[in-house]
Design brief:
60% of the residues lie in helices and 13% in strands. It is built from 26 helices and 14 strands.
Length: 659
């Protein structure tokens, strides 16, 4: 049933309308249409039962009116069978319910008056004065048994009543008192049955209205829910899918991937020199450019049965099912060419090109690797960075052995040597909140790196290179020093955390450097938390294990990050007592399935039994937050509670709250 706004408005008005007013014709027609099949059955079986009863009553005619019994019985048989056949013919030809009602009403009136006219000729008037009340059966039948519309019930039952009252008053040979009582009885049956018919009709109508209202409310709720899901999954500027939606789409693609021979390609695209474009032409021009690019990406994705989304800033991501590396190369090339074909003018580039272009990196699922979007994006990110070092306006398919990617790493290591001195490295803070109250408990410090041209370099790209070259020690100490300074000066809650790698942890003087930083800023050790990623195996580094124990003795908190993503998690929990264990975001996002929810619950139960404080990462929706509250999680972190922002934005937010 199509529930339009007009129907919804009619329902609202009809429910508030006084019961004595007539029903809305449109809604009543919908009621009849809704109950059409049921009404057909009521009429067919009702007439069949009525005809059977009508003919059976001929036995009384035989005993009470022997002089006209033959005529009465013949009348009953003729009229009963005629209308029984007529109703069946109308029903089998799928006529409207209204037509069936007309035929049934005519059958009642004809049957009643036909018998009455034949019975009036009997000489047994006293018997007739007793048996004439048989006419009330027709009155009740017209009003109560067939769900007629009120006017049809009233017309047919009134016709029968007038006929029997007239016959009683003017043709029945009986005393005046008898005729008066019988006439009053017929009139009373008419009024009472009509009232009951009206009440039943109103009850059916209002029950239908309330059911319709509930259906409308459900439909509105579903539509609003779909709109909310669409809003939650859509980038507000470009209209493409956002990161949350892309993550879910990837999970669905993985299910399909397991059933066929195609592979999943992940393409990461970044607009070349976009910061310069913005600085030169303004942010409105930048937004217009991104919208135009998004349209081209969406069309190209549709042509390749792919899924395009905005991953953040000037970065876009594409998921596609491909037949192999060559197919992925062709699809990636199409996206690059689609941007060049737009010929959007770019007035500030180092190269000779004067239009907007993109650099792209792509990665491919492999049968010998686990299917994780996080890993594929990291690989695509590294390939993207290789494209940038190759001169931009090109694309690279990830290959761990590729020479251009090695060259990109070499160039990046040179950049990392000057990152601190040139001011290319910065820090942002993401709040850690109480899962129930939403109160900010602390912040996690996250390192950010820009290229010389101002473009951002993903941590998944520069952190592995920094660890390989040893540059992570200087960068890591800079991050911790900056975080402690901001903690003391601006107050970031009860704790500020920083990620440390196994390269930092195995340095013999690492605890001394931490002690020096804390002393210089005058910060209590327990306000600093060092996050160790589960993916690194510190058991192979005896010095790293000793450093962890020294830092714990100093009072520094030790947190286990990304729990569940590596293979050493349980062994770590046996070896060390962590102050906080952070469950990786992937386990929360998998809670849409029963298996994923059960796995998260088991992990939380295990950590609690071991006495660890649990923090869940990646909280992006209110539904996820409610789930974690129900599970009794203490702390949460994610885009819902706060995105990573520079210290200046935190200070500005506090000033606005005070104002």
């Amino acid at each position: 049933m199509q529930l339009t706004e007009d129907v919804a408005q009619r329902v609202t008005e009809a429910i508030s309308r006084p019961s004595w007013k007539s029903a809305d014709p449109t809604l009543y027609a919908m009621l009849l249409q809704k109950n059409a099949d049921q009404n057909r059955k009521v009429v067919r079986w009702g007439i069949a039962a009525a005809v059977l009863s009508y003919i059976s009553y001929g036995a009384f005619d035989f005993f009470l009116f022997p002089d006209v019994a033959d005529r009465l019985i013949l009348t009953r048989l003729t009229l009963g069978l005629t209308f029984l056949v007529l109703v069946e013919l109308v029903a089998r030809r799928s006529r409207a319910v209204t037509t069936l009602h007309y035929v049934a009403a005519l059958a009642i009136v004809t049957g009643a008056i036909g018998w009455l006219l034949s019975a009036l000729g009997t000489t047994h008037q006293e018997a007739l004065s007793h048996f004439i009340i048989f006419g009330t059966v027709f009155i009740l039948g017209a009003n109560l048994f067939f769900n007629f519309r009120l006017w049809l019930s009233a017309l047919s039952s009134a016709t029968v009543t007038v006929a029997f009252v007239g016959a009683t008053l003017f043709f029945l040979h009986a005393g005046f008192a008898t005729r008066l009582v019988l006439s009053t009885y017929f009139a009373n049956c008419l009024v009472l049955s009509l009232y009951l018919s009206w009440r039943l009709s109103m009850e059916r109508y209002h029950t239908f209205l309330h059911a319709l209202q509930a259906q409308i409310q459900e439909q509105v709720a579903i539509e609003n829910g779909q709109k909310l899901i669409e809003i939650a999954d859509t980038d507000p500027l470009t209209g493409l899918k956002n990161r949350r939606a892309i993550t879910r789409e990837f999970a669905e693609l993985c299910t399909e991937w397991a059933r066929d021979n195609d592979e999943i390609g992940v393409i990461l695209m970044d607009v070349d020199y976009f910061k310069r474009f913005n600085d030169r032409l303004g942010h409105q021009a930048g937004d217009d450019c991104l919208i135009e690019l998004a349209r081209a990406f969406d069309e190209t994705a549709a042509a390749n049965h792919a899924i395009a989304g905005r991953y953040g800033g000037e970065e876009f991501v594409v998921l596609c099912k491909v037949a192999g590396r060559d197919h992925l190369r062709e699809v990636t090339h199409q996206f690059c060419r689609a941007v060049e074909d737009l010929k959007i003018s770019h007035p500030d580039r180092d190269d000779k090109l004067n239009i907007v272009t993109i650099s792209a990196g792509a990665s491919l699922t492999r049968a010998d690797q686990s299917i994780e979007l996080r890993i594929l994006l990291q690989e695509a990110d590294r390939a993207l960075y290789a494209s940038k070092f190759s001169g931009r306006a090109t694309f690279t398919i990830y290959d761990a052995q590729a020479i251009d990617q090695k060259r990109a790493s070499q160039n990046l290591s040179e950049l990392l040597k000057h990152a601190v001195s040139e001011g290319l490295v910065s820090v942002v803070y993401q709040p850690i909140c109480d899962a129930t109250s939403g109160q900010v408990l602390g912040h996690e410090s996250l390192m950010r790196l820009r290229d010389f041209d101002g473009s951002m370099i993903s941590p998944s790209v520069f952190i592995p290179v920094a660890e390989q070259t040893g540059g992570i020690e200087e960068l890591g100490m800079w991050l911790i020093d900056r975080a402690c300074g901001d903690m003391v000066e601006h107050g970031l809650g009860s704790v500020v955390s920083a990620n440390v790698s196994v390269v930092q942890l195995k340095a013999a003087n690492f605890p001394l450097h931490i002690t020096e930083i804390l002393g210089r800023h005058g910060m209590a050790p327990q306000k600093l938390a060092l996050e160790v990623t589960e993916g690194s195996d510190i058991f192979l580094e005896a010095q790293a294990a000793r450093n962890i124990e020294q830092l714990r003795n100093l009072g520094v908190q030790i947190w286990l990050d990304d729990f569940g993503t590596g293979f050493a998690g349980l062994a770590w929990l046996r070896r060390f007592k962590f102050d906080v264990v952070k469950i990786d975001r992937s386990f929360l996002h998998d809670c849409q399935t029963i298996r994923g929810l059960s796995l998260l619950q088991d992990m939380v139960r295990l950590l609690r039994n071991l006495g660890h404080t649990v923090l869940v990462e990646g909280v992006e929706t209110k539904e996820q937050q409610n789930l974690l509250q129900h599970m009794g999680i203490q702390s949460v972190q994610g885009f819902l509670t706060g995105r990573p922002v520079p210290i200046e934005e935190i200070k500005q937010s506090r000033r606005e709250l005070v104002a």
